[in-house]
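Aim 2, interim progress: modelling of the 1-deoxynojirimycin-bound target.
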Amino acid sequence: MYVFFKKNKRKGRLLMVLTACLLYSCTPTVHRQDKEVEKAIERLVSQMTLEEKIGQMNQISSFNTPGNSWVEDAVKDGRIGSILNEVDPVRVNNLQKIALDSSRLGIPLLIGRDVIHGFKTIFPIPLGLAATFNPRLVEEGARVAAIEATSAGVRWTFSPMLDISRDPRWGRIAEGFGEDTYLTSVMGVAMVKGYQGQDLSHPSAMAACAKHFVGYGAAEGGRDYNSTYLPERLLRNVYLPPFHAAVRAGAMTVMTSFNDNDGIPSTGNRWLTHNILREEWGFSGFVVSDWASVHEMITHGFAAHPAEAARLAVQAGVDMDMMSFAYVSEMEQLVKEGKVSEKTVNKAVKNILRVKFRLGLFENPYVNEELHKETFYAPEHLALAKESALESVVLLSNDGTLPLDAEKINTLLVTGPMADDGYEQLGTWVFDGEENASVTPLAAIQEKLGESSGRKRVRIVYEPGLKYSRDNDNAGIQRAAAAARSADAIIVFVGEESILSGEAHCLADLNLQGGQSRLIQAVKESGKPVITVIVAGRPLTIKKEADLSNALLYSFHPGTMGGPALADLLFGDEVPSGKLPVTFPVTTGQIPIYYNHNSTGRPYQGNETSLENIPVRAGQTSLGNTGFYLDAGAQPLFPFGYGLSYTTFAYTNIRIDKVSYRQHDTITLNFDLTNTGKSAGTEVAQLYVRHKTGSVTRPIKELIFFERIPLESGQTRTITWNMPIQNLAFWNLEMKETVETGQVELWIAGDSASGESVRFEIN
Ligand code: NOJ
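Predicted structure of the complex, ligand included:
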């Protein structure tokens, strides 16, 4: 479909309708003849012993078993259906050979791995990919990840992570697409399609896993694994749609989440994994638990012992047990005692076998052991990683210092712990990424301005100041400050080490770690222009640093090719186009802060008295009564969707074809977008709506479409978007997905906080 997009760049109308199709109706992955597969599954299951069935439902990690003969014996005996974390093609083939030749029924293994943002060639973390607002790039990046990973024998990835998060304290915000349901859905679908490709049985297709089902990103207090309290309507309106979109796009597997929602751990929640996933959505792949989450239902206090945990999970609809060993140790007895019916086990096994059949594992179980030599770090993979990094970077402020003009610089100071650290720029979840493949910003700047560049030679002074993000070394800061005094411009690379975000790595304080803020302050005292580049896994609270900097670029951990991308942006060979996929708070005390919140009865007005202006002994009601913090107002530092360019854009003539529509109509929107600045650039035009009233209160704004629009300097394009009114449906008071009648406001703008609204009516 994206090939189609490319060929039809002009046709905005088509694009909008197609995106709706992408999210709501298409099933693009071609499955092998379903009937044949179902017959083969039936035949196979009828030959299986109960023990062999339970074996298929058991997934183990090779971490615990390197070269261990009991694994080989267990595979031979049909007691393992899937292995995760085996990435050596020779070992994969050996294990597969045992499964095929030495087990009674010769059922192939399914090899899984966390391939989250690339396998060897590392792309920006998913939060950075979301900042591109470019699903084509995300799909192509996922394809690259699949090509590399499958050449190592991996046919199943535990990605995409579709957890909406409104809390940057939560370390796993790095792994998702941010706070918005629509953006997450679009990006999730792109990843599923990229991993799985056009034909799942192709050796380079990798089954996707939509995770974590569901609500995991709403962990209380932003502390990982914590309980969530999401009522059904919020689940259906905000947290479930990305999963539904992924299932519609053909995602072959779904992983349950660690959290308990309103007291029910997801791994034991039949309403979610059976009623919604299977019955409402018609999901035909399989459900895997998260790591040990079957067993952890005991720790939650939801199950008394492993047998009860296994029973609850399988009856909820969890087909495969990842690393609890609860199915393999308890299920046989449970069936014998009649506590779990063999029919339930059969269903689970069929779901698992269906995925193995669709992946073509029965016909084509082995990986070509030489293939990885061609796929890992292929030049076109590195080029795509660079393109993704380029589009993922967000320009947050600029007084005109950027882009830097190398002709005007004699001495450039490059400083900060993230300037030359190939490992830390990769971000979280890079089991297979390699530090020495990274090109760091320092290396890229040296290359760009060095002798071979043909440009004027710039003297580049590198003084890291700090060795790593939590470092507090004052002497290093002083050395950088001294170097700053003789520089013409200073680029400071600060941020977060990879280990500070990702699973279990939450923070209560989102200020820059260690002495990094002092480093910026110290070099700023030189009076020279300071460009700050933040390389991090989440939004940080950076008001002070933004104020100190002449320009501020935000790069969510950008991956292998982060350095060249940043260097191109800094020196104007490329123009920033990334937009924030998540709101940046001023201070952690504002969290949760997100753009698509409901309206209170007393919304913030923007002119409220702030803490320092409150008269001593002011009267109780003298400040007015609105919802805000006396010390931090109610506005974020940077809103969702925000991002600057080296040029500027103007939105004019926003018009709709009618003033009132019926529920099955399509609205035609037109607007003129002009590049009003001096350089070419790409704008991410965003469409937001608000229902003025509803049977339940509705968010003050919701993103429902976006498009990246490239424009030459001075160019104006008239853009037409067609939006089915059906896209405005939401789960209403009766818990039905409905387009309600009433007044709607609509904005087309460059971020979630600007633009004039246009009104229309749904009758
Ligand atoms: C636990 C994580 O929550 C999940 O995302 C991951 O896929 C599994 N471990 C497997 O590594």
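The longest strand covers residues 681-691. The chain has 23 helices and 26 strands.
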